[in-house]
## 1
Amino acid sequence: MKIHLESGLGQNLIRAYALGRITINEEFYTTSLIVTPRQVVTEWPPVSFADLLAGHFEMIVPLRPEVVILGTGAQLRFPAPSLTRSLVEAGIGIEVMDTGAACRTYNFLMSDGRRVAAALLMIEELKQGID
């Protein structure tokens, strides 16, 4: 999905997202990442929701956002509170949503001048279960 929003010069704007791909400004990314208005951290290790560890959230603390938007892929899934404890202890808020909603929310908060970080897992194909 393409997002139409303009931002100030030098800010990271999420322009589009799709299965396995997120476009920030004019660059596209195919792995999980953290984006703030001023930087893109591509060395964020989790590949899927099941891979999330407490250390992955600890990596966000030095970025000093006021809120983290966690994009959990194609589906909304909530991490265990023990995983996000480092954010809470640092006084950083966390909102959890699917990655598409996280991209849109990040852009809105960023354009409003908020210190926001989006920790985004790639949107993956949903596997259909057989009953």
Note: Strands lie at 14-18, 21-24, 27-29, 33-35, 40-41, 67-72, 93-97, 116-121.
## 2
Amino acid sequence: MNRADLTLGPLPERDHAFYGLVWAGATLAARVDRELARVHGLPLSWFEVMLWLNGQREPVAASDLGAKTMLSRSQVSRVVDALAGRGLVARSASESDARSVRIELTEQGRAAFAEADATRRAVLAPVFDDRLDDADIAALETVWRKLKEPRPDRAPDGTR
């Protein structure tokens, strides 16, 4: 059997939909990661932290970044260290908690993010934007919203 003959076999529609989401996320993320690293020297994990910081008007606690990103607390710390080393983020002491550090993009960081985001958009255009119309995007938004909603019988972290 050659690689072209491999299949998942018969799957229930829900399983196929799940594995399709996994495939799409992994494939698109890998494509974006390769190009961001090649063009800007920014791995996707760095870009994700910058994405969250770019949307904030005030510095944020490092712990809040860990809660929002798909990174562990130690990964966020390493990413922030690397970004700070390149002058893309600045740290400041929290006014309300002496143990807490707050993070924000520098002006250089905002410029680097804008350039990297333009690269991300260009990479995704032929494989995402050009293939999906407004109705497809609305359907995806509906799916993501439903998947992100906390279940009433569970805590926000998914536990009972």
Note: The two ends are 45 Å apart (CA to CA).
## 3
Amino acid sequence: MGAVYEELPFSEFLHHPAATADRLEKVRALRLRRREAGDLALTRADQLERDAVVVDFTARLLAGMVRTEPLVAVRRVLGEALPWVAFLPDEDVDQLLAELTTVAQGAASLENLSPVAVLLTQWRHTAEVHADPVLLEHVGREPSGDFGPVPAPDAQP
């Protein structure tokens, strides 16, 4: 196999499904571009299963490292994988590692990586706040004044 994926218009898949599927002999996946919607990916089921095995292994490896290795070594490796971690306070890095281990294992068991992507995005945004002193001061400031009455929630039937 050469390239990781190939791009083609979704209409080509619709007009020539067998020929399009045959392209998966040469690439891992096909990215089907759509005009008014998000792109789709087409891959072979056996490739998806192999990817799931790798993700499960990686999640277990991470959990094992966090449990058994010196924290300084794990932090150093984490900093190489996620350079923005440098902006997080030490206690936040510890919390990130704990959450990442739990979420990665859970996501691997569900074969759904979305929770890991969401967690990493949330922590990256936290690092962005810590990297900007003005933004950090603004976000960390206690609100002042009275914001008025809070409306009662709608009654549920």
Note: The helical segments are 10-15, 17-22, 45-68, 71-81, 90-110, 114-131, 133-140.
## 4
Amino acid sequence: MSKTDSRPSIQTQINESIQEEALKVARSIQKPGQTKEQTKLVAQGIAKGIELYKKQQSAKARERDKVRKKALKLKQVESTGQQREEDEADFTLDLAESGISGMLLLGGGVFAIMAGILAVSLVAGWLVSFGPFTLPVWASLAAAMAFAGFSGWFFYKAIRLNHGQ
């Protein structure tokens, strides 16, 4: 706003509009015996609530716009057939950066430990039991093999994700 311009800024006009609306609402819900000062405080609270709501809605709108633009860009790239390998590499890099490969490694490690425990119990001749139920040896062997398979699959996916294949 210039020094010669005496009109209030758009933001000031919006704030005044919000305050006027908040005061109208505060007056409409005013209780008997409530002072003007109390009504003004209620109006201030309502105005802050409105401003917070508008900020949240603006943030949500910006996020939706980002997602829409990203989807539009991806659609344009796919329709033209250009830069497909670069986009896939970026997507893989995004996944790797977001911790998915770490989670895959963690899952692989957990399954490897479970497979190891069952394998050791089989070699040592220990029986696996859950309360009154005892797991048969063949079920322990099958579970150990399944856990080892899951572990290998998790590690394979983590390595593949990190190398962008």
Note: The first strand starts at residue 128 and ends at 130.
